[in-house]
Design goal:
Residues 53-89 are annotated as: Disordered. This protein is mostly helical and 89 residues long. It has one domain (2-87). Helices cover 89% and strands 0% of the residues. Helix 2 packs antiparallel against helix 3. The longest helix is centred in the C-terminal third of the chain and has 34 residues, at 54-87. The protein is elongated, with a radius of gyration of 16 Å. The relative contact order is 0.16.
């Protein structure tokens, strides 16, 4: 499911890129790169959780969820920052 959402999001960004300014794209890409790094950390945390059990597994899963939420918030912030750049041009 995450892969589908990422592909859908990427397709949306590509479709919107045609009407975005270079500066807006630069800002959004910086946030997107940060979000991707957080998603990678979450994936690594989930892989580690698979090798744990009990409370340790739950803690790792919760940490992965928190990273995914932070990645989502970073993407939203990037979109808002990009919109602000576009409005100021």
């Amino acid at each position: 499911m995450k892969t589908f959402v990422k592909v859908l999001g990427l397709a949306s960004l590509v479709a919107l890129a045609a009407c975005d300014s270079a500066q807006e794209n630069k800002v959004e890409n910086a946030y997107e790169n940060q979000a991707d790094a957080l998603d990678n950390q979450a994936d690594n945390m989930e892989a580690m959780a698979d090798n744990l059990s009990g409370n340790a597994e739950n803690a790792a899963e919760n940490a992965a969820d928190a990273l995914e939420n932070k990645a989502d918030a970073t993407r939203e912030a990037g979109e808002k920052a990009g919109d602000a750049v576009e409005k100021n041009q």
